[in-house]
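Title: Comparing notes on inverse folding

I've been comparing how different people in this forum approach sequence design from structure. To keep things fair, I'm posting one structure and asking everyone to reply with a full sequence. Here's the target:
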């Protein structure tokens, strides 16, 4: 049980001193610090690109981004409040790691406006948080099936698992913020620069539908881990005696089924959303544009690119839909076998047989297929294959047990699949999106230092007025100050 493993982007170098004008020379040091923080991010991303998967330090990347993002917002605040101006429209170069490409490497494109930098930086932040959650889970191993693990050790690892759930909920909130807030601003900025004749391509990474889809996928990944935590004690107790009857510590099988069904709903919604950009035509021509640079005849047109999201992401979502659908049917069958009485013996066998068939198809690659394009996808598919094999063995154990009971004691007919489908309930969400709060700028309007300086200037002004005998009279109830021109003259 894990989550999607993102390919992290890389970015080109930029010096903010080359694009920003500080007329009062107030922010010279801050501009240099912001450039340095971005250079640190660029270096960390390049180093991560060269590092083997098992040795990547996602926590370091998160810390580098935590340092850069407030400084980036400080720069934006100064520009928006006219404390700085721009020498020219900045151009930022990023690899679009969510884009499908004719080649195996991610295409790099150059896109104008500071809004582009905000979106790609926050996307990289969300990717890093998601990958950090995956690394945390990977470090735990299959601890709940270790026979020698103590109760205290198991609970400690449960807490680490809960931390990974929190990280994914945070990533979900970050994607939601990007999709609903940042991309709306980016679209406005895009319209502005296109009207000036500047080319501004729109890869899937900058599609609102794709990013909202990633939010739903992260939430589904979080729910997946939450289910594992819920079952950890029962999984440990079932290691010695698998199959029916369930241990007393086991949560309601019907509840577990509903949790898996909600995963199916979230992954299905995510898959529908990320497939949206592929609806436009002429995608192959655009892939050539992205691979070899700008189209000389494009001018200032809004290049929609027609790019599709990378196939490995679409396959991941399809596999997760199939897996959680099968697991939901498994637990509906177990619930019928454990709590349905003699009248539900056939229902238990029917659901478990259906789950077994789906898991076998998923194991053999009949559902999604496709060529594996990267080591990352190979790793994800291998882990899922191991998970599917483990679940298939569990389903077989329950199916053999309940079938024997039905054949010898209950004698109930097995309903057809259409009847079983009508018995499937709605899903249940057990986790929540953690909304992203924009950080306080490191400098400029809205920053702690800026507010402190304004407060000190106001206090100094009041002190000077008091010294000169011009202190404004204190307001009393029913009266108002008339110390400004046009006081009480309302138009």
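Reply #1:
Here's my take.
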């Amino acid at each position: 049980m894990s989550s999607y493993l993102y390919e992290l982007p890389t970015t080109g170098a930029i010096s903010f001193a080359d694009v920003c004008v500080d007329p009062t020379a107030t922010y010279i040091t801050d501009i240099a610090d912001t450039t340095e923080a971005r250079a640190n991010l660029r270096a960390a991303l390049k180093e991560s690109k060269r590092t083997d998967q098992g040795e990547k330090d996602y926590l370091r990347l998160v810390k580098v981004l935590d340092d850069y993002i407030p400084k980036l917002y400080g720069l934006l605040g100064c520009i928006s409040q006219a404390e700085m101006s721009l020498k020219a429209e900045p151009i930022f170069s990023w690899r679009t790691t969510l884009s499908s490409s004719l080649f195996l490497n991610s295409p790099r494109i150059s896109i104008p406006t500071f809004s582009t930098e905000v979106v790609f930086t926050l996307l990289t932040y969300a990717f890093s948080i998601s990958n950090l959650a995956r690394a945390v889970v990977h470090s735990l191993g299959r601890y709940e099936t270790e026979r020698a693990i103590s109760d205290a050790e198991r609970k400690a690892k449960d807490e680490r698992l809960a931390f990974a759930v929190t990280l994914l909920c945070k990533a979900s909130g970050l994607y939601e913020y990007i999709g609903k807030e940042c991309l709306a601003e980016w679209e406005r900025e895009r319209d502005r620069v296109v009207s000036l004749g500047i080319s501004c391509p729109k890869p899937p990474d900058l599609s609102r539908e794709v990013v909202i889809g990633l939010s739903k996928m992260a939430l589904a990944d979080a729910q997946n881990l939450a289910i594992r935590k819920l079952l950890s004690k029962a999984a440990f107790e079932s290691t010695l005696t698998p199959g029916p009857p369930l241990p007393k510590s086991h949560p309601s099988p019907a509840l577990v089924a509903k949790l898996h069904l909600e995963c199916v709903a979230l992954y299905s919604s995510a898959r529908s959303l990320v497939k949206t950009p592929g609806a436009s035509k002429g995608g192959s021509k655009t892939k050539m544009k992205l691979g070899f640079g700008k189209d000389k005849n494009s001018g200032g047109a809004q290049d929609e690119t027609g790019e599709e999201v990378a196939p490995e992401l679409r396959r991941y979502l399809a596999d997760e839909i199939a897996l959680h659908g099968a697991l939901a049917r498994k637990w509906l069958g177990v619930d019928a076998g454990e709590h349905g009485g003699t009248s539900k013996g056939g229902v238990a066998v029917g659901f478990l047989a259906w789950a077994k068939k789906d898991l076998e198809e998923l194991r053999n690659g009949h559902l999604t297929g496709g060529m594996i394009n990267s080591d990352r996808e190979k790793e994800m598919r291998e882990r899922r294959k191991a998970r599917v094999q483990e679940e298939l063995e569990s389903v077989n154990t329950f199916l053999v047990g309940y079938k024997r009971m039905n054949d010898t004691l209950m004698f109930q007919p097995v309903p057809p699949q259409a009847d079983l489908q009508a018995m499937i309930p709605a899903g249940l969400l057990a986790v929540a999106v953690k909304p992203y709060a924009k950080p306080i700028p490191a400098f400029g309007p809205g920053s702690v230092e800026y507010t402190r300086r304004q407060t000190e200037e106001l206090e100094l002004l009041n002190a000077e007025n008091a010294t000169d005998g011009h202190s404004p009279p204190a307001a009393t109830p029913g009266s108002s100050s008339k110390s400004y021109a046009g006081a009480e003259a309302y138009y």
